[in-house]
Specification:
Layout: H1 3-24, H2 27-50, H3 57-73, H4 78-99, H5 108-138, H6 149-169, E1 173-175, E2 179-183, H7 184-204, H8 206-211, H9 214-242, H10 257-278
Antiparallel strand pairs: 1-2
Length: about 290
């Protein structure tokens, strides 16, 4: 099977699953999202070990479960998320010190990677759960659970538009030191595709059109496209530092889960605050910032 064909089949399959889960909402988002974050953390930990680092695995897994559970179950999670991150830092420092009782053996890199993996995965992806909650106060038909679908769809639009625009028109390298295959033309194509995809969603769904008129939808799509590119570059930078080309081989044509989710980490965060700050406010605790 060719690389493009495998990429299309796996991408469409994952897309269909994401659409179903996002529209179902609630537990259908929480359980898969928790599982994906744990797998993503596992890939991070694997890359770290290849680099000779030893982050504290059980702290990473425990924090992800606790953090996402707090966001999902509590009505006002913003009261707990910042203290949880502070506890993570202090507790990780304590455990790392206990692992290395002799001061000269203390490894700040292991501590930093433990905190980074925990906050990067759970902290960013938790915004999909917050979008699901925001859905209830911003849309007239919250049973559709449309908002959690937006960061996933925008990342897919950007990746698809960027891939084909780069293949057809790519000339100018965007960041050859980080991701040699990325081109400026690919980024422009991806951003335009994201804007068009967002407008298409408002044309299909009257509820979204009321919340985000077409001009605002296109602007949101462009911003989310830029966020998707930043997420892609961030993961490329991480992989370059760890000296790996793919985070794993779990998804045919795409590599690892982090290779596929890299843009969604940033689009979920960006989409939540775009809709929280720049759409008509609703009542209720779900309209509060996370941190």
């Amino acid at each position: 099977m060719s690389g493009l064909k495998a990429r299309l089949i796996s991408g469409l399959t994952l897309g269909a699953i994401c659409v179903f889960l996002a529209l179902a909402g609630g537990w259908f988002i929480f359980i898969p999202l928790l599982s994906l974050c744990l797998v993503a953390a596992r890939e991070f930990l694997h890359m770290s070990r290849l680099r000779g680092l030893s982050p504290i695995r059980w702290i990473c897994y425990s924090f992800i479960v606790i953090f996402l559970s707090v966001v999902f179950f509590f009505n006002e999670p913003e009261k707990f998320t910042t203290p949880l991150i502070i506890i993570l830092i202090l507790f990780s420092f304590l455990i790392q010190t206990w692992r290395n009782p002799r001061r000269k053996n203390f490894n700040l890199q292991d501590l930093s990677v433990t905190i980074f993996i925990s906050v990067y995965t759970a902290g960013l992806m938790s915004h999909i759960l917050l979008l699901d909650r925001l859905d209830e106060v911003r849309l007239a038909t919250p049973e559709l659970h449309l908002l959690p679908l937006i960061p996933v769809f925008m990342a897919w639009c950007f990746d698809s538009g960027g891939y084909f625009a780069g293949k057809l028109f790519g000339r100018i390298k965007l960041a050859p030191g980080i991701s040699p295959k990325k081109t400026v033309e690919g980024v422009v194509g991806g951003v335009i595709c994201s804007g068009a995809g967002m407008v298409m969603m408002t044309l299909i769904c009257e509820d979204l059109a009321r919340l985000t008129p077409h001009w605002k939808a296109f602007t949101f799509g462009v911003v989310l496209g830029i966020a998707a590119q930043l997420g892609d570059l961030a993961m490329s930078l991480v992989k370059r530092d760890f000296d790996v080309s793919d985070t794993s081989k779990v998804i045919p044509g795409h590599g690892g889960l982090l290779d596929r989710m890299d843009s969604i980490f940033f689009t979920s965060f960006t989409a939540y605050y775009l809709y929280l700050l720049f759409t008509p406010a609703g009542a209720g605790p779900s309209s509060q910032p996370l941190m």
